[in-house]
Amino acid sequence: MSYTASDLRAVGAGFVLFGLFAFAPGYTFGWLSNALQFRERRLITRLTASVPLSVGLAPVLTYYLWRWWLPLVWIACAVWGAACVTLLIRDFRANRLQLSRAGRSVLAIAAGWLALATLTLVDLQIGNRLYFNFVSYDYSTRAAFIAALSRGGMPPHNPYFFAGQPAPLRYHYFWLIPCSLVDQLGGTLVSARQSLMAGTLWSGLGLLAIVALYLRFFQSKGGNRIERRTLIAVALLGITGLDILPVLLIDYSSRIVLPCIEYWNNQIDAWITTALWEPHHLAALVAGLTGFLLTWDAARQPKPRLAIAGVIGGGLALASSVGVSIYVGGTLAAGCAAWLLIVVLKRSWRQAVVFCASGIIAAALALPFLAQVAQGTGPSEASAATSLLKLAVRSFTLVDNVVHPSSAAGTAALNLAFLPLNYFLEFGFFFVVACLAVRRFRRRGFEGPADGCAAALAATSLLLCTFLSSTVISSNDLGWRSALLLQFILLLWAAEMWDDGVLGLAAPRAGRSAASARAAPRLVAVALVLGALGSCYEVCMERAFPILADSFAVQRYSILALDRQLGRRTFELRRAYELLARTLPANATVQHNPEEGIGNIPAGLYSDRQMVADIGNCGTVFGGSEKFCDEVILPRLKRLFDGRQPVTAAEVASTCRDFSISALVFKDTDPVWANKSSWIWKAQPLLSNDFVRVIRCGGN
After folding, report:
1. Residue whose C-alpha is closest to residue 692's, from 518, 540, 576, 567
2. pLDDT number for residue 507
3. Angle at 304 between CA 301 and CA 308, to 5 degrees
4. Is the C or the N end of the chain the one with fewer CB within 10 Å?
5. Nearest-CA neighbor of 358 among 303, 284, 294, 454?
6. Is 416 exposed, middle or buried (CB count within 10 Å of its CB: 0-12, 13-18, 19+)?
7. Residues 93, 95, 99: CA angle, nearest 5 degrees
8. Residues 295, 339: contact at Cβ < 8 Å?
9. Which of these, 226, 161, 286, lies nearest to 633 by C-alpha position?
10. Among residues 416, 464, 463, 455, which one has the least CA distance to residue 434?
11. Contact between residue 148 and residue 612 where contact means Cβ atoms under 8 Å apart
């Protein structure tokens, strides 16, 4: 069977099943609550609103239902699924799906997203070679988390650490809950990895939908030319900054090929990068924006029932955002606080009360989850939880790699001085939009409450992504993800400016001065072209780089393969892990070489089993004791794989028994493989070929 065809079928099935969590609850909630005047809207508006409403409601609802009792989740799914089907049948009989040419183009873009993302994410099989995409570096981790949820339930355990008993997972995993539920519903047809891909498709649709909702219900133009404005906005999602210029310069001067367009600098991700690499962060943005929009609309409702529905829905969605991504949800919470302060100063008491009520609901729902993920299992973990953030000016690669300041203060000063250039390269076309917006606000002020609110949200996001840095891992996740809110506001402004003719690519609309507020059309056109090229580069590299690394003289990454056998080795590893999935129980522990950076991506992608240790340090950043990992686990496991000292069968059996290991997976890249007199060649294998050798041992 072709693994590509298998993935396509599974992702298709997973996408349909995911509708129970990414469409049905939102349509049912909208109809029953009439939030955003759901029942009075056109059918296309109801269908559009259902996705972000579901992305906002489903994560937090399934989290609490599962914590109480898993069957409650299935009961809720049955109820809102049946209600959604009933309401859809009724609505399709009573309404026609009328769309303009622009509306049909938006649907075509949505279909194109589904096709592009699916073909980018599935494994590509070429004969007996199998290639995952480059984003699998991240997907392998989240697929393992989803499998841990499916195996052990709520709260999940860290799949990378096992010291005789599981360690609680410290991660924002709300988006992985519906992925796990789809994994369970799909049975043997849909794996954890494939359910994650299906969730990626829905999070992208959620982004398209929330853009349309904000143009309709937040921006001052409302429903005026809404389909045309939506088409402009979703088309601009394909535009990123000017990253293609430094990337091509690095590629040419260093004779290397960067596998991701964001690798050249402290990144501001392209929309396509966020959608494919970090679907949970994108889902958090959609959920948080949905919560904010419901609260914003509730403050304007004269009927108490509609206001209450908006407050409750808004609180649920904001809580979901925090649980899906602490960084994105925290940024939105800071933006809400900034806007609340403004409305209090303006004495807009109704709006202040509504936002306070929604915030209290969100905090009450999010705090139990935050308390849970903050728990440590030892002194080192507890102390690490107290220093999650630090003050730091956003770094710039020109300063870090070329100037080399002699002091930390000098580095901060230079990074601050280079911020305009840094952001010009990262935002490109949207940097021009930001400059035009600032000029317009200075000359004419805010045209309505939405302008002031959007400016407050954008300023909050800009401050956080510029002057705060997360310290949990080496990557500055807060600085990268907090920029999403700013990017979204700039996207809305860009669509409105394009529609008004302000960007200089069309005649200005009536009432607009052609001379006072237009951009230079050539600058805009060049920025658009370079931004589109950057997004194309990113998609092509995500799909093709593992193949290029196997076939051409490009730089090699140890996370893929240092030889040119990635495709054949991945094919055999997937086959081995699928054999183990059929042979071993779901609670079995399967262990490979725990050293970091030696091509262990397939273990996270395909194993769906607990590991004793992985990614170099037992993944203790996600839960567990770093001390126990370094002093007990790794010394015993590494002896089995490094081949430095003779290992007896009795020692192997003792290690497997002590750590409940059911099977050991050896690759041809493991040092012990080269020693043909080692114990792995004497033991009877469950599977053996030129790349993989699987040996059963004394676990469960």
Report:
1. 576
2. 65
3. 90
4. N
5. 294
6. middle
7. 130
8. no
9. 161
10. 455
11. no
Strands ordered across the beta sheet of 687-688: 589-591, 661-667, 692-696, 687-688
pLDDT at 649: 85
Instruction: Give the length of the chain.
Output: 700
CA–CA separation, 410 vs 677, rounded Å? Answer: 56
The one-letter amino acid at 202: W
b vs e for 509-534, b when ≥16 Cβ sit within 10 Å of the residue's Cβ? eeeeeeeebbbeeeebeebbebbbbb
Rounded Cα–Cα distance for residues 511 and 500 (Å): 10
Query: Which pairs from 519-524 meet CB under 8 Å and 24+ separation?
Result: 519/432, 519/436, 523/432, 524/429, 524/432
DSSP reduced 3-state for 262: helix
CA distances to 70, 169, 367, 434, 517 from 438, rounded to whole Å, are: 50, 43, 37, 6, 11
Q: Can you read off the two tokens belonging to residue 112?
A: 């194109």
Task: For tokens 């240092």, name the residue.
Answer: 562
Q: Compute the distance between CA of residue 227 and CA of residue 331 in angstroms, rounded to an integer.
A: 29
Over its C-alpha atoms, the chain yields an Rg (Å, rounded) of: 26
Is the pLDDT confidence value at 511 over 60?
Answer: no
Q: Residue 177's Cα: distance from chain center in Å? A: 14
The answer to whether residue 514 scores a pLDDT higher than 80 is no
pLDDT at 382 over 50: no
Tokens of 251: 């590629």
Judge whether 669 and 700 are in contact, CB under 8 Å. Answer: no
pLDDT value at position 21?
A: 98
Both tokens assigned to 530: 């370079």
Q: Which two tokens stand for residue 42?
A: 């056109």
HSE, CB side, 13 Å, CA atoms: give it for residue 222: 5
C-alpha span between 562 and 550 (Å, rounded):
9
In terms of C-beta distances under 8 Å and separation of at least 24 residues, what long-range contacts does 336-340 make, across chains too?
336/292, 336/295, 338/456, 338/457, 338/459, 338/460, 339/453, 339/456, 339/457
Residues β-bridged to residue 692: 667
Percent of the chain with pLDDT strictly greater than 90: 76
* Paired tokens of 63: 């989290």
Average pLDDT, the chain: 91
Q: What are phi and psi of 590, to 5 degrees?
A: -120, 125
d(CA 505, CA 528): 11
